[in-house]
Amino acid sequence: xxxxxxxxxxxxxxxxxxxxPSIFPSGDASxxxxxxxxxxxxxxIIKSRPLYLPKVPLILDERGSKYF
Length: 68
Description:
With 68 residues, this protein is an all-alpha fold.
């Protein structure tokens, strides 16, 4: 797994409450909020890409800038 949300879901299933502290303390409401925030942040990242992507070569060294 390479993303924090799937890792959190896996941990919640592998180590269930009440034996372990819950990652989603309000149950379904916490899970729904996490899903909503994850979707919103993905949308923000995708839509803001034109703002930050052209500036990436400016912060890299010459070799990295050419590769990018």
